[in-house]
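user: can you give me the structure for this one chain? tokens are fine.
assistant: on it. calling the predictor now.
[tool input]
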Amino acid sequence: MTGHGHFHWTEFVTRDPERFKTFYARTVGWTYEAQTQPDGECYWVALANGEPVGGIFPTNRPGLEGIPDGWMPYLAVDDIDARVAKAVAAGAQLMKPIFDIPNVGRLAILMQPGGVGVGWITPTQDQSPKST
């Protein structure tokens, strides 16, 4: 598992997950494992040689309109609540309340100063990177 200050996970957010699943399967050989999220929606864990390497997060559902396709990295932090407070004080914007994903971790989606989105995560202990 990655530690504080290291990138922990990345996911491709897209309105057309099948298109990009096919693209990465054909070009780099990824296979996928479907995971049902707490909201009942499907998330795709991308696998390279059977090992998780990232995810595909579908945005083709209500409440996610206007989110552009692109890669979203997640930076591991030691204490999400304390670190987000520091980030906000330093000019970041918290895009939605900090949230928990069981067996994954506690997460925040931030807009950094300058307008770039990034995810932060305090991973669940003893877990390899999983979907967010």
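assistant: here you go. The domain at 7-123 is CATH 3.10.180.10 (2,3-Dihydroxybiphenyl 1,2-Dioxygenase; domain 1). The CA atoms of residues 14 and 68 lie 7 Å apart.
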